[in-house]
Automatic annotation (TrEMBL):
PANTHER family from the UniProt entry: LINALOOL DEHYDRATASE_ISOMERASE DOMAIN-CONTAINING PROTEIN
Annotated organism of origin: Agrilactobacillus yilanensis
Chain ranges of the DUF2264 domain: 8-345, 352-593
Protein name per UniProt: DUF2264 domain-containing protein
InterPro entries cross-referenced by the UniProt entry: DUF2264_C, DUF2264_N, Terpenoid_cyclase/PrenylTrfase, UCP014753
Coiled coil (residue ranges): none
Superkingdom in the source lineage: Bacteria
């Protein structure tokens, strides 16, 4: 699928049908589409409505192109779902109802192509549909991106000539503004963080709003923010089309390029349309080269493959079809410039880019894009928050891993993390056929405060408990990842630190090498290594592990994870670590031969590599 043809409108339409046609075998009644056996926080009956509506994110924009059989199914499904007398009724809403999330796709389907579908309903049927949609104004919804659902439904209804007596949309816009931070970034509610919900939710919906009400002052604001954000968001991608997995809702996969589709639809940054087409197409090709469909050609829950353990409580089997948002492009006219231009390669970008709103430092190294992550303060309430938001680094090439448990290193698979264990918490593990008593239970970074930033250094403090306090600075030099930790400990502690995890398929095993200072692995998936750069050496031991299968987001295979183990007594200590990883083994091996040199002074660290120098202020 690396050669998937994506040039003309017909190409994209064919792709939409290829992805969504299998859904039509799973209608439950007229208004629900559902398959699978897994549960979801809002129940599978509402999930069936979700399956129907998420197909519409793509079907709505191409409603005129669809054959009569598709059209009749959609027309009948909306009518049955909004009919209180029907057994297929979608039901009455309540506060913070998942059905609110699904309403905009339905509303826009009625609107697209000059109200094409809307005009096919009688006046009585139109009243029935709008009566159901108006329920959204009678209930509270979450204070993050959900507020856009009220705003968009309100504006669509107005466009359809429906009278809506409510101040809810105005209030919702005020709440959206409370989420805005800077540089185009939104925080998803007071409890939320900055992640892919900025591009595929806030920014996407803001652009849709600007199309609905072009003369509204907020439309100009949304367009300006979108262009600002585009200059940040381009650093989430690599030259081959991959994006860096980070944060929650990663099962939506290629929805990450829905923002670029909306940019084209909204005629924002038109001078970069070739560039945006390249980003969209390469990302789609990347995903279609992954085993993300099952044997029935249905999208699976997971990321690089079917993997239930990384999902959220709000992910049902049909949730991945939210990625149909990319097919907003099909609403473009046949003669639109997008269908005429050729895609161009990923542009030359600065090797290091501070994304200051989400506290990320984006690094580009010979086709490898990775983030250094200071962390975002805030409460933890999503699944696997530590893994999705608080690792030190996230990679376009290697993804990240999630735990099966929090004791054995092999099941915790703590890539790009630092775990602390205390001597008084022990477990018995089998090592080399022997029963070994060793520390058990890891403490890892789960929140931060006192975040600092410069153009090439980010730092934050994380407090584990009264006995453990760690300040971490992160930077990069010549593609190397450098971590400086200042550990303030009140008890003897074992410190376990790791690099990136790489596939080590037992059918084609790689090579692990370690000594008193460094550990690295090289195999068919690339090279990954970790080295101690601390000038005053504490005794370290190799702690490379073979992580359990089905823990990494990119590969289902066993992974090799280079790690180092250091025991510190009570007091203040510095631990300085270098990480290097790349899919190109020859390139990485050459880089590994010449390591950064660190000079640790009282309040400053000097890092040198060839002619490059970096200074970190440790105050």
């Amino acid at each position: 699928m690396k050669n998937l043809q994506l040039s003309t409108k017909e190409d994209y339409f064919s792709l939409f049908k290829r992805i969504n046609t299998p859904l039509r075998q799973h209608y439950n009644g007229y208004s629900r589409i559902f398959f699978g056996t897994t549960g979801v926080g809002y129940g599978n009956r509402i999930a069936g409505m979700e399956g129907f509506s998420r197909m519409l994110w793509g079907a709505g924009p191409c409603i005129e192109q669809l054959g009569n059989d598709w059209l009749m199914e959609i027309k009948r499904g909306i009518l049955a779902g909004t009919d209180p007398q029907s057994s297929d009724y979608w039901g009455d809403l309540h506060d913070r109802d998942q059905r609110m999330v699904e309403m905009p796709a339905i509303a826009f389907t009625l609107l697209h192509h000059n109200h094409y579908l809307w005009k096919q309903y009688t006046a009585k049927e139109q009243h029935q549909i709008t009566t159901w949609l108006k329920q959204i104004f009678e209930h509270q919804c979450s204070d993050g991106n959900w507020q856009f659902f009220k705003i968009l439904v309100y504006q669509v209804l107005k466009k359809l000539g429906v009278t809506v007596n409510t101040n809810d949309a105005k209030s919702a816009m005020e709440k959206i503004e409370h989420c805005y931070r800077k540089d185009g970034w939104y925080q998803d509610s007071a409890r939320g963080r900055m992640d892919y919900y900025t591009p595929f939710a806030f920014q996407y919906y803001g652009i849709l709003y600007s199309i609905l009400v072009p003369d509204d002052p907020m439309s100009a604001v949304f367009k300006q923010r979108a262009k600002q954000f585009a200059k940040q968001y381009i650093h989430f991608f690599a030259e081959d089309g991959t994006n860096v997995p980070f944060g929650r809702s990663l099962t939506y996969r290629y929805a990450v390029v829905a923002f670029w589709a909306a940019m084209v639809y909204g005629d924002i940054w038109p001078e970069k349309i070739n560039l945006m087409k390249g980003i969209i197409n390469r990302n789609i090709r990347y995903w279609f080269d992954k085993p993300i469909f099952d044997s029935s050609n249905l999208l699976t829950l997971g990321y690089g493959y079917a993997q239930l353990s990384m999902t959220e409580p709000y992910n049902s089997p049909v949730s991945p079809y939210w990625a149909n948002k990319i097919f907003l492009l099909l609403a473009l006219p046949d003669d639109h410039k997008y269908w005429q231009v050729e895609e161009i390669p990923y542009p030359e970008v600065t090797h290091t880019k501070l994304l200051s709103a989400p506290n990320l430092l984006a690094i580009h190294d010979n086709g490898h894009t990775f983030f250094l992550n200071a962390g975002q303060p805030g409460p933890n309430y999503h699944a696997l928050t530590n893994e999705k938001y608080f690792k030190f680094a996230y990679s376009s090439q290697f993804g990240f891993s999630i735990p099966r448990n929090n004791q054995l290193k092999e099941e915790a698979v703590m890539d790009s993390m630092l775990g602390i264990q205390t001597k008084d918490t022990t477990m018995v593990a089998s090592r080399g056929g022997q029963n070994i008593t060793e520390p058990g239970m890891f403490y890892t970074r789960n929140n931060v405060y006192d975040v600092t930033q410069s153009d090439n250094v980010i730092g934050s403090t994380w407090l584990i408990n009264d006995a453990m306090n760690i300040r971490t600075w992160l930077t990069s030099i010549e593609g190397w990842q450098i971590r400086v930790h200042r550990l303030t400990l009140k008890c003897t502690s074992v410190v376990y630190e790791t690099g990136f995890a790489l596939e080590n398929n037992p059918d084609n095993p790689g090579e692990i090498v370690s000594d008193l200072q460094e550990s690295y692995f090289k195999g068919s998936a690339g090279f990954t290594g970790i080295v101690d750069l601390t000038p005053s050496k504490e005794q370290q031991v190799d702690a490379t592990i073979q992580g359990f299968p089905n823990t990494n987001l990119i590969t289902p295979e066993v992974v090799s994870l280079p790690g180092r183990l250091t025991t510190f007594t009570s007091g203040t200590h510095y631990l300085i670590t270098g990480i290097y990883a790349h899919q190109d083994i020859a390139y990485a091996s050459k880089k590994w031969l010449k390591k950064p040199v660190v000079d640790l002074q009282e309040h400053k660290v000097k890092i040198s590599l060839d002619e490059a120098e970096l200074y970190l202020n440790l105050k």
